[in-house]
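Q: I'm a student working through a structural biology exercise. My instructor gave each of us a protein and asked us to get a predicted structure, then write a short paragraph describing it. Mine is Chromate efflux transporter. I'm not confident about reading structure output yet, so if you can add a plain explanation after the tokens, that would really help. Here is the sequence I was given:
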Amino acid sequence: MDNHKTALQNKPKSKTKALLEVLTVSTKLGLTSFGGPIAHLGYFHDEYIRRRKWMDERSYAELVALCQLLPGPASSQVGIGIGVIRAGVLGGLAAWLGFTLPSVIALALFALLIQGSNMGGAGWIHGLKLVAVAIVAQAVLGMGRKLAPDRHRATIAILAASAALIWPSVFNQLLLILAAGLIGVLFFKQTEDREAANITVPVGRSFAIVCLSVFFGLLILLPLLRQWIAVDGLSLFDSFYRSGSLVFGGGHVVLPLLERETVSAGWIGNADFLAGYGAAQAVPGPLFTFAAYLGAMTGGITGAIIATAAIFLPAFLLVLGALPYWNALRRSPKAQGAFIGVNAAVVGLLLAALYDPLWTTAILRPVDFALASILFVLLVFWKVPPWLVVLAGAAGGIIISGGV
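A: Happy to help. First, here is the predicted structure for Chromate efflux transporter. I'll explain a few features afterward.
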């Protein structure tokens, strides 16, 4: 119980004050958190844990572990979880809003700026495609080292990548994830962690069951409603909700799902898709706000709002549904084994996305490979901030294309 006293000793007496405090701090993070999910967790630790002591170190580590195991954007889910623990369900909403809104606005405005401007062949757009190749290659390398470090998990990753490329479909990706989870249960059972810290949250199990029921209910019903009701907004919501629900690993792993839901559906061109993905690296906040760009390209401001709400809603429902059960889940060897298998498959799915659509549409000439390699080295070995790499890629694209 000492851990919980430490985590809550700084809690304000007023709920309104707590909400405003969460919104203020998360907005600061939303304006300054560059560098992707891993960097975001570092920013969160510095601001929420080290400086403000809203949670103790062990509870924060447990919350991060939970969110990394759930589908969805892990860093955003950690922020939501901290907001919930600090100020209840509305606190989770405030934490998400502050962290997400700055990049949503930036990417929606970028979409409106280039929409209809026929910039698909522009040099800087091509440079952004090459930035996307370098950044996803960095993600594959980092995730592979962490989630598929041995021959068994590496084999799962390669088999998943091969299957995803040979039989490309969202349904196939779901089957691959389920199969990897079953393999994990059978072969990667973990030792029970009896010393894991408990996380106390102001959310009851009854409310959690409601949230999980809504999550699965929407996942099943939205595709059916989409067939019965021909409304563009409903189709958009369904596509982005499903993408947010089926992403294990967060961040860059959403790329293949969104590509199939938007480019393959004819909503957006491949060049515009990759340009937006590259631009998403230049703004702070979660990568899932790429949905705001895609929504704006598809349906203007209304589309951006629908897409953003839809892709993040599963994250909310899963965090609220899982937190009350985390203490039991953390101690289940079978659950831990399943997550190990799933994470290995996720590496494979991201590897497949690196090849198609990224590599096949961006690396067309030797000079493209050369520039993408330089950008990769800047990211991985020189540790250059992603936003600077984005600028370098856009400039390089102009140079190798012979003009803007």
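A: Here are two points you could use in your paragraph. DSSP finds 17 helices and no strands in the chain. The two ends are 61 Å apart (CA to CA). It's a good idea to check both against the output above yourself.
Q: Great, thank you!
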